[in-house]
Amino acid sequence: MEVKNIFEIRNVNSYYGSKHVLKDVNLKIFEKTVTAFMGPSGCGKSTLLRCLNRMNDLVRNFRMEGEIAFRGNNLYAKEVDVTDLRREIGMVFQKPNPFPKNIYENIAYGLRIHGMKDRHYLDQVVEDSLKRAALWEEVNDRLHDSALSLSGGQQQRLCIARALAVKPQVILFDEPCSALDPIATAKIEELISELKENYTIIIVTHNTAQAARVSDYTAFFYLGDLIEFGPTSKMFTVPKDKRTEAYLTGKFG
After folding, report:
1. Would you identify the CATH topology of the domain 5-248?
2. Residue 66, Cβ density class (10 Å: 0-12 exposed, 13-18 middle, ≥19 buried)
3. Is the pLDDT of residue 1 over 60?
4. Mean pLDDT across the chain, nearest whole number?
5. Residue 135 pLDDT > 70, yes or no?
6. What is the pLDDT of residue 2?
7. pLDDT single digits (tens) 188-200
């Protein structure tokens, strides 16, 4: 079966002020797969992730050179509506960030700001999204409780459900388990494996074991350079670059 590109990253350089963060990165990301961006802190992996839904537009002194195509269209073209773009390319952050609202309203929020008022439709989307995020069974009788009353792992799955509610094509995960305990981490990893049937997933992680468990493809970054990219199983068994091997065997990072 042919695997289609969903992102094509061409000659991307990025800067925070005078600091050169990403250096001439070229990369294709495939549809309905899990791709891990891996590398030590400060290597540029989160910066690249945030370029994919233009979150860096919000950062002062950030600039990018090169081109990122999403389904063949330039993400940074002037006519691109960034709000619509972020609806198609959802994001889950390092720390759970539920809104200070009840569980139901956290999920319905994105639909409401796009003008959806049909209560029956909202009810259905809330239920479907919570089921997809493997949270429905735990919260279906407390939808009007504060989202902040949930455990950390539940809050992170709620944030995933919130991202799913607006029907994205891509979900970006920026170290989604770094604030969670091992049991909650295992649930998120299992969920990621299930979600790739319907979504393209990109996950930033400095945890090599996590990259090995959840991803189909891995990109290894070091000091702003993309050192190596390929199927995760190959990279972890026969890395092509000595720096990749050194990182995977714990010699640095």
Report:
1. Rossmann fold (3.40.50)
2. middle
3. no
4. 95
5. yes
6. 64
7. 999 999 999 999 9
Q: Which residue type sits at 9?
A: I
Contact 156, 180 (CB under 8 A): yes
Q: What is the pTM of this model?
A: 0.94
Name every residue whose Cβ is closer than 8 Å to that of residue 115 and which is 6 or more positions away in sequence: none
d(CA 224, CA 21): 5
d(CA 253, CA 246): 9
Tokens 């609806």 — which residue? 87
Give the length of the chain. Answer: 253
CA 59/CA 61 separation, integer angstroms: 6
Domain boundaries, the chain: 5-248
Question: Which residue, 142, 174, 135, 180, is CA-closest to 158?
Answer: 135
The answer to whether residue 186 scores a pLDDT higher than 80 is yes
DSSP 110-129: HHHHTT---HHHHHHHHHHH
